[in-house]
C-alpha cells in the first residue's frame, strides 16, 4: 500500500509555475523572452492550458491610454482605491495602473485581436466604478476583444510560451510545497493520469493556481477552482490574507450561475425588478447600473429580500431581470455575442426580445496568498519566503482590497505576471543551483489516510452541503449567527470527510481521489473565509455584515489567517494597508485618504 505513495522521479528546472492560466503564462513569457533557454515547467490541473479559467473572462481590461485627453492614470488609481473601500495597497495600485498600457501594447504586438472602432483605434467601453476626474463621469477605459477578452489573452500567452520551449505537465496538481526556514525549493506533484508522485525542484516557484469559487453553490467559476493554492500554503504554515473578501458578480445567469458580463450594463443594459421598474437609481443615484459590483449585488439581493424579485419556475429561485431589448442589433451581434448565446443556450431566451433572469453569483476572491508588490510571498510576520511567488487570483498583493473593479482582474494578471517575471530573472542571475535537501513531510500521510478510511459517507454529498451552507450563510449578506452556524457545519463535515471511504482503490485516473483532495482544500478555504468574516465586525466592500452595516476604520487593515493542527481553530494577524500615495502629500493626495464611498 505505502509503495504507491513513493516519489517516482525528481525533475529539476529553473522556474516551476503551478497553474497555466493568464497570470502564469504572462510570467513565463517574460522570462523566456528575456532569458532564452531557461527551463520552465508549468503544471496545469486541467487537460490543456486553454481550459484554464482565464479563457472565460469576457468584458475587457482597464488601461489608460497616455494619449487619451479625457483620462489619466491618477483617475484609474483613485477609482481602484475607492472601489476597494480603502483597503487596496497604494504602492501596488500605482505600480499596476502606471504599467497597464505597456501591457496592452505587449499583447497587441504579439497578435491579440483587440476590437477596434471605425477609425481603426482600439475600442473602449465603460465599466462599473471607472470614472474620470475623480468620479465626475464614467470613463471609457476598458479595451476588449468582443466579449471573449480572456480567450484572447490565453491564446497570446500560450503561443508565446509554446514557441519558446515551455514544458507543460497536464492534469497534474501540487500536493505539497517543499519549504524549510522560509525557503521554497519546489513541490511534490501528483500526476492524475498515471497516479504517481513526482518531486519538482526549482530555483523559483510561482503559484498561479486561480480562484476558489467552488466553495459556493452558485458560481461563475470553472469546476477546477477549488482554492488549491490557498489550502496548500496554509498547510505549509503560511497565512492567507483577507479571505473574507469574496466578490459576488451581480449578474449570474439564473440556474447555472454562469457569468453574464458587466459588459451588458456597460453597453446599456438595465436592471429591473418584478414590476419591470429600473431600481439602481435608489442605490447608486449617480452611477446606477455602473456602480461597483458589491453595491449592485446588494441592490439586487435587497430587491429580492423586500419582495420585488421574480420566482423562476424551473429553478425555484428568485431573481431580477436585465433588459437588453432596447440595444441595437449591432451591439447584440458584435459586442456581446457570446453572452447572448449563453442566455439562448442555458435558459432558452432571446435577449433581443425577452427579459433575462439574473442574480448575484460568486465570482472572484480578492483575498489570497499575501505578497509584496513584486509578487514575493510573505509569512505571518511579513518576511519574504525565499524563492516563492504568487500571481493572479490566488494572490493578494493587494490591488483590489475588499472590492475588485470590473476589468482590473485580467489587468492584474498581465501586469503582475510581467513584474514577477522581472523579479525571477534577477533571481536566476544569482542562483546557480537548485536546492535539493528539503524533504516532503505531509503528502504521503494525507493520501494514505484517504485510502485507509472506511466510512460509508459520500464525498459529493459532503461537498454539496459545504457549498450550500456557504451560499446561505456567508455570501452577499452575513451575520454573526449565520457565520457561527457555517463554522459548526464545516467542523462536522470535516469529521465526516475524514471517515469517508474511497470506492476506487487505484491512484491512476481516480477522480474520486482528486475530489477527496479538493474537498480538504474547500473545507480549509471555507473555514478561513468564515473565521475572518466573523472577526471583521464591520461592512467593507464585498464583506457586508447585517449586524455591523457600516464601515469601521478600526478595521483598516488586512486580515491574516493561519491554520493550526486543529481544524476550525485559526490564528489571526494583520498587515497594515499601504497608503504611500496619501502619505507622500503630493497633488490630489487627499483623494487617497479614508474617503467616503458613494456612487
Report what the structure shows.
By secondary structure, this protein is of the alpha+beta class. It folds into two domains: 1-58 and 150-245 and 366-568, FAD/NAD(P)-binding domain (3-Layer(bba) Sandwich), CATH 3.50.50.60; 254-360, Flavocytochrome C3, Chain A, domain 1 (Alpha-Beta Complex), CATH 3.90.700. Helix content is 34%, strand content 20%. Strand 21 and strand 22 form a beta hairpin. It is globular and about 65 Å long. The model has no long low-confidence stretch (mean pLDDT 96).
What layout of secondary structure does this protein have?
Layout: E1 7-18, H1 22-34, E2 40-43, E3 61-62, H2 73-83, H3 90-109, E4 131-132, E5 137-138, E6 142-143, H4 149-163, E7 167-169, E8 172-180, E9 183-191, E10 196-207, H5 228-235, E11 240-241, E12 246-253, H6 263-266, E13 270-272, H7 280-283, H8 293-305, E14 310-312, E15 317-323, H9 329-335, H10 337-347, E16 356-365, E17 369-370, E18 376-378, E19 384-390, E20 395-396, H11 408-430, H12 443-452, H13 459-473, H14 480-499, H15 511-535, E21 557-563, E22 570-576, H16 580-583
Parallel strand pairs: 1-2, 1-10, 2-7, 10-19, 17-20
Antiparallel strand pairs: 3-6, 4-5, 8-9, 9-10, 11-21, 12-16, 13-15, 14-15, 15-16, 18-19, 21-22
Helix pairs in contact: 1-4, 1-11, 2-3, 3-11, 5-15, 13-14, 13-15, 14-15
Amino acid at each position: 500500500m505505502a509503495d504507491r505513495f513513493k516519489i517516482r522521479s525528481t525533475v529539476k528546472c529553473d522556474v516551476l509555475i503551478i497553474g497555466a492560466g493568464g497570470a502564469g503564462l504572462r510570467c513565463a513569457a517574460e522570462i523566456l523572452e528575456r532569458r532564452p533557454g531557461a527551463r520552465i515547467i508549468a503544471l496545469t490541473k486541467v487537460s490543456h492550458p486553454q481550459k484554464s479559467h482565464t479563457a472565460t473572462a469576457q468584458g475587457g481590461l482597464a488601461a489608460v491610454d497616455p494619449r487619451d485627453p479625457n483620462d489619466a492614470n491618477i483617475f484609474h488609481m483613485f477609482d481602484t482605491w475607492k472601489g476597494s473601500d480603502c483597503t487596496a495597497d497604494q504602492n501596488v495600485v500605482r505600480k499596476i495602473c502606471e504599467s497597464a498600457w505597456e501591457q496592452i501594447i505587449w499583447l497587441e504586438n504579439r497578435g491579440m485581436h483587440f476590437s477596434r472602432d471605425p477609425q481603426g483605434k482600439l475600442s473602449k467601453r465603460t465599466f462599473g466604478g471607472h470614472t474620470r476626474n475623480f468620479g465626475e463621469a464614467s470613463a471609457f477605459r476598458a479595451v476588449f476583444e468582443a466579449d471573449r477578452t480572456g480567450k484572447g489573452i490565453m491564446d497570446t500567452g500560450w503561443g508565446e510560451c509554446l514557441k519558446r520551449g515551455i514544458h507543460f505537465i497536464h492534469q497534474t496538481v501540487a500536493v505539497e510545497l517543499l519549504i524549510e526556514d522560509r525557503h521554497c525549493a519546489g513541490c511534490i506533484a501528483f500526476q492524475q493520469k498515471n497516479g504517481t508522485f513526482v518531486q519538482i525542484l526549482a530555483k523559483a516557484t510561482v503559484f498561479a493556481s486561480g480562484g476558489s469559487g467552488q466553495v459556493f453553490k452558485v458560481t461563475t467559476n470553472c469546476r477546477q477552482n477549488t482554492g488549491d493554492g490557498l489550502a496548500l500554503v496554509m498547510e505549509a504554515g503560511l497565512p492567507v490574507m483577507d479571505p473574507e473578501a469574496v466578490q459576488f458578480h451581480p449578474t449570474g445567469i439564473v440556474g447555472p450561475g454562469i457569468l453574464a458580463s458587466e459588459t451588458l450594463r456597460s453597453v446599456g443594459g438595465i436592471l429591473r425588478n418584478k414590476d419591470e421598474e429600473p431600481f439602481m437609481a435608489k442605490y447608486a443615484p449617480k452611477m446606477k447600473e455602473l456602480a461597483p459590483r458589491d453595491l449592485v449585488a446588494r441592490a439586487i439581493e435587497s430587491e429580492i429580500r423586500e419582495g420585488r424579485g421574480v420566482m423562476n419556475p424551473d429553478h425555484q429561485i428568485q431573481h431580477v431581470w436585465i433588459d437588453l431589448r432596447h440595444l441595437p442589433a449591432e451591439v447584440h451581434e458584435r459586442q456581446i455575442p457570446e453572452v447572448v448565446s449563453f442566455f439562448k443556450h442555458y435558459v432558452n431566451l432571446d435577449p433581443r426580445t425577452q427579459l433575462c433572469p439574473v442574480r448575484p453569483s460568486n465570482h472572484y476572491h480578492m483575498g489570497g496568498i499575501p505578497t509584496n508588490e513584486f509578487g514575493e510571498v510573505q509569512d505571518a510576520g511579513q518576511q519574504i519566503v525565499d524563492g516563492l511567488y504568487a500571481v493572479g487570483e490566488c494572490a493578494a498583493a493587494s490591488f483590489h482590497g475588499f472590492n475588485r473593479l470590473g476589468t482590473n482582474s485580467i489587468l492584474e494578471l498581465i501586469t503582475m505576471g510581467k513584474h514577477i517575471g522581472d523579479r525571477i530573472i534577477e533571481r536566476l542571475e544569482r542562483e546557480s543551483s537548485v536546492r535539493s535537501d528539503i524533504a516532503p513531510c505531509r503528502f504521503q500521510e494525507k493520501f494514505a489516510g484517504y485510502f485507509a478510511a472506511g466510512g460509508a459517507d459520500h464525498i459529493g454529498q459532503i461537498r454539496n452541503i459545504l457549498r450550500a451552507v456557504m451560499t446561505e450563510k456567508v455570501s452577499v449578506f452575513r451575520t454573526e449567527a449565520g457565520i457561527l452556524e457555517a463554522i459548526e457545519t464545516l467542523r462536522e463535515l470535516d469529521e465526516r470527510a475524514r471517515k469517508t471511504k474511497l470506492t476506487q482503490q487505484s491512484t491512476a485516473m481516480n477522480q474520486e481521489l482528486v475530489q477527496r483532495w479538493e474537498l480538504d482544500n474547500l473545507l480549509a478555504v471555507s473555514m478561513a473565509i468564515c473565521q475572518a468574516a466573523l472577526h471583521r465586525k464591520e461592512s467593507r466592500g464585498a464583506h457586508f455584515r447585517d449586524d455591523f452595516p457600516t464601515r469601521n476604520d478600526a478595521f483598516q487593515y488586512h486580515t491574516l489567517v493561519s491554520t493550526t493542527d486543529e481544524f476550525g481553530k485559526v490564528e489571526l494577524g494583520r498587515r497594515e494597508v499601504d497608503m504611500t500615495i496619501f502619505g507622500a502629500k503630493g497633488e490630489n493626495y487627499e483623494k487617497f485618504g479614508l474617503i467616503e464611498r458613494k456612487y
